[in-house]
Amino acid sequence: MQMNRRVPVAVLVFCFALTLAGVGVYAELQKGQYQAATLGQFPQTSPSESLPDSQYGGRAYPLYPPELVAGEGKAEVEGYCSMCHSTRYITMQPPLPAAAWETEVTKMKKTFGATIPDEVTSKIVRYLQAHYTPETRKQ
Amino acid sequence: MDATERFLSRRGLLKALGAAGGGLALSRWVGRDTAMAQEPASSGAIESFTGPGANQRWNSVGPYVTEPQKAPLLLLTDRPVQLETPRHYFSTAFTPNDAFYVRWHLDGIPNNVDLKEWRLQIEGNVTKSLGFSLPELIQKFKAVSIAAVNQCSGNSRSRLQPRVAGGQWGNGAMGNAMWTGVRLRELFDAAGVKTGSVQVQFQGLETGSGPKGMASGSFLKSLDLANPVLDECVVAYLMNGEPLPMLNGFPVRLIVPGYFATYWMKCLSWIRVLDATDENFWMKPGYRIPDTPKGNTTPDDVKAGKVNMVPIAKMPVRSFLVSPDGSSKIPAGMRVTLRGIAFSGYGRVTRVEISDDGGKNWSAAKLGEDYGAYSFRTWEAAWTPKSPGKYTVAVRATDEKGNTQPDEPVWNPGGYLWNRIEKQELVAGTAG
Predict the structure, then answer these.
(1) B158 touching A, CB under 8 A?
(2) What is the β-pairing status of strands B366-367 and B377-383?
(3) Do B85 and B73 form a contact (C-beta atoms < 8 A)?
(4) Which of A134, B53, B311, B379 has its C-alpha lying 20 to 30 A from A95's C-alpha?
(5) Is A102 helix (H, G, I), strand (E, B) or coil?
(6) Dihedral, CA atoms, B382, B388, B391, B393, nearest 10 degrees?
C-alpha cells in the first residue's frame, strides 16, 4: 500500500517537472514538444503559423497514449517508461515471451540509462509479463 | 489520355455522371447493397496488434494519424514519432514528401529550427572547423541531385518468425525522393581532413531525455572514411524539389545512396571527423547484422554466441506489388495491370518477374523509367485471371550485380534485411 501511494506522487512530481522543463525548452530549443490529440481526427492543413521570420516548423507533435491493460504495476509502467518514450512502444510490440520483456526492461536501464529503482523494475517486468506475452495478451 | 483513361479518371467519371443526370444515373449501374458497402476499410475490422505469428498485412496495423506537414499515415509510435507510409503511395517512382515515412529514435525531436541560428558544423580531426548557414550551403557549393531510396533497416520487421522486439513495420518504412544538395566530399575538402582520421560521425538536432553519453541521450552514426559511398553522399536541402518536412529532417539531411536509412541523419548539424572507430550504442551493438550470407542466423546461434555482428550497410534487392492490392475481386477473363516498384542498394534493378502460381512459373514485367541506380523503378505487367479462383501473385527482382530475391525468410536479432519474395492473393470471380 505504501508503495502504491509513493509511486503516483513520484509520477506527479515527474509530470510537473516535465511541464516546467517543457515550458523552458519551448522558449529556447523548440524541440520535444508534444500535445494531447484525438485518434481518428484528421485536421485539414491551414496556412502556416506566424512564427518569427527565420523559424520553420512550429507545431507540437500529437500524443496518442494507448490504453494499457488495467492491473498491478500499470502506474509504474506509465510513470517510468513514459520518461523517455510513449507506452505505444509496449502496445506496438507483438506478444513477446516473458524472458524478452525482462531483457527489454534491463536494456532500458543498462543501455539507455533509465533510472528505475530495483523494486519498481521487477514490478514493471511482472506487469508486462502478466499482460503482453503470447499466453497473456488480450488487447 | 485515351478514351478509357478519360472515363476512368475522377473528373471524367463526374462529367459522365453529370451528363447522365447526376445521382439518379448511378443507381442504374451500382446495386443498392454495393453502394451501402463502401465503408472505410478501417472501420474497426483491423486487429490492434499482430503476433506471435507473422503480420499478414502489407502494412503495419496502427491507426491513421495526422502529424505536422504530413498526410494521414499509419502510427507506430507517437513519442518519438514513427509513421508508416500506406501501400497505395508506392504506385509512383517518387514518394510524396507528405506521405514519406517517419522514424525518430529519441523524443527530443525539433519542432522548429531557427535558420538565423542554425549552422552545419564540420569539426573534429580537421585542419579548420567550419560552420555553414543554409544560404551558404546553397550558394557556395554546386547543387547536385540524386534519386535514392530511403528504407528503414527494420522495414518489414513484423514478418520475422520468431518475432523480434522493435518497430513493428509492415512494408511501408521506405520511400524514394529526388534529393538535391551539396556533395559531402566538398565539405570535407573545405575543412581539410587530417591524416590519421578513420571515420566521420554524423549528428542531428535530435536529443533524448536520458543521461548524456548513453543511448537515450543522443543519436550518432558514423561511416568509414575509406568507404566509397562517401563519394556519393549528398547533404540535401531539397526533397522532391521542396524543403524537407521537419519530420523528415529539415533543414538538411544526409543522403547515403544504397544504404539503409540509419545513416541518413535528419536535421544534420554536426559532421565530425574521428581519429578512432565510433563505438557509441547506435554503432555497436545497435544496428548490427550477422556477418553471414544474407545476414541470416538463428536464435540458437545468437544465444550460443556463435554470431559475429557487423554494422548494417547496403539494402538487399526488393520488389513489391502495389496494385491490385487484393481488396477487390477481379472478374475472370478481365485483363488487369499489375503494378509496383523495385530497388536494390547494390545497383540498378535490371529484371522484375511476376508469377501467378506462387512462384513456380515466372514471366518478365515491363520496367518503367530509369531514374538511376538507387531509385525506385516502377514495373507493370498485364495479367488476366483465366478462370475464377484464387491466385497467388509473386514478384521477384534482380539487380545488375545478379542479386535476386530469395523465397526463404530472413531472421536476425535486430529484425533487419527482410527481402523475401512478396506474395499477394488475388481472387477472380465469375463474370457474366
Answers:
(1) yes
(2) antiparallel
(3) yes
(4) B311
(5) helix
(6) 10
Going from the C-alpha of B426 to that of each of A49, B352, B358, the distances in angstroms are 46, 19, 11
The Cβ-side half-sphere exposure at B431, using a 13 Å CA radius, reads: 14
Which of A57, A62, A113 is the closest to B110 by Cβ?
A: A57
pLDDT tens-digit profile of B123-174?
A: 999 999 999 999 999 999 999 999 999 999 999 999 999 999 999 999 999 9
| Chain A nearest C-alpha distance from B212 (Å) | 9
Question: Strand B82-84 vs strand B102-103: parallel, antiparallel, or unpaired?
Answer: antiparallel
B84 touches B57 (CB < 8 A): no
Read off the pLDDT band of A47 (50, 70, 90).
Answer: confident
Judged against a pLDDT cut of 90, whether residue B16 lies above it is answered with no
- pTM for this model (two decimals): 0.88
Nearest-angstrom CA–CA distance, B332 and B23 = 29
Q: Does B65 touch chain A (CB under 8 A)?
A: yes
Largest CA distance in chain B: 78
Residues B164, B414 contacting (CB under 8 angstroms): yes
Give Cα B164 distance to the centre of its chain: 20
Q: In this complex, do B113 and A55 lie within 8 Å of one another by their Cβ atoms?
A: yes
B45 against A78, higher pLDDT? A78
Write the single-letter amino acid at B374: Y
Rounded distance between C-alpha atoms, residue B60 and residue B166, angstroms: 13
Contacts of residue A31 in chain B, CB cutoff 8 Å? 108-111, 205-207
Give alpha helix (H) positions in B262-346.
Answer: 299-303
Contact (CB, 8 A) for A57 and B250: yes
A14-18, A70-74, B159-163, B357-361: least confident range: A14-18
Nearest CA in chain A to B73: A42
The CA distance from B227 to B184, in Å, is 13
Tell me if A111 and B215 make a contact (CB, 8 A cut-off). yes
In percent, the amount of chain B with pLDDT more than 70 equals: 90
Phi, psi of A87 (to 5 degrees): -75, 0
Q: Is A114 helix (H, G, I), strand (E, B) or coil?
A: coil
Summarize pLDDT for B97-117 with one digit per residue, the tens: 999 999 999 999 999 999 999
Does residue B43 sit at the A interface (CB-CB below 8 Å)? no
* Residue carrying C-alpha cell 479462383: B389
> Using DSSP, how many helices (H) and how many strands (E) does chain B show?
7, 25
